[in-house]
Model the fold of this input.
Amino acid sequence: MTIMRAHALSLAASVAAVFLFGGCQPPGKPTSADIELNPEEVRDFAVLYRVNCAGCHGRDGRGNAALALANPVYLAIASHETIRRVISNGIGGSLMPAFAKSSGGTLTDEQIEIIVREMRSRWARPQEMLGAGPPPYAAEERGDARAGEGVYTAFCTACHGSDGKGTATGSSIVDDSFLALVSDQNLRTTIIAGRPDLGHPDWRHCVPGKAMMPQEVTAVVAWLGSQRKVNPGQPYPRNEETQR
Done:
C-alpha cells in the first residue's frame, strides 16, 4: 500500500513538473489567445484594417466602393499626417466617416497611427513612381470651371463622354447623386491617383504621352463641382408654379 501511494505521489509530481517546466496549461485554464481583447486594446493591423476599412476600401487595400489605399500614387501624394487626419476626422461632404474617439468614432490615436504606419510600410512602393512628380494632394489655388471644361474635353471624354454622362468604358461623372456623395478633394484624389481597381488611369495616362498639369487637375475639379445640383437625387424637375 505504501509503495502504491509513493508511486502515485511520484506520478503527480511528474505531471506537475511537465506543466510547470514544459509550458503546458492546466486543463480548463485559458491561454492568452483565448482571452478576448477589448476593442481599444487591438494592436494588430490586419484586424484593425479588416474591421474598420476593408468594407469600403477593399480587401488588402485594393479598392471597393471607395478608392484603393494600396495605390503607390495615392500614398505618394497623401502624407502620413494627411492620412491620419482623414481617418481621425473623416471628410466632409463624402461617405468617409470620422474614426477617432475624439471625433465620435471608435479608434484610439494609437490604433489610427498603427493603421497609417502599416499602410505606408506595406503598400507605398516608392520604386513604382519612377521619379514621377504628381500634382499636390490639395489644390494650391482656386480652380477655373470654364477652363476646366476644356481640360475635361482634352483628357476625359474618351471614357466619360463629351457630356460627362458616360460611355461603354466609363461611368457618368456628372450624375447629381454621384456628385452629392463625393467631395472636391475626393474628385481630385481620384483624378491624380486613378482607380486601378476600376481601370481608371492616373494623371499620367488619361492621354497617351501627356500628363495633366497641376492647374489642369484643379480646373477640371472646379468644372465637375459646378455640375452639382442644389437638390440632388430628385427624379422630377422642380416646378415653381406648383409650389405656390
In short: The domain at 145-225 is CATH 1.10.760.10 (Cytochrome Bc1 Complex; Chain D, domain 2).
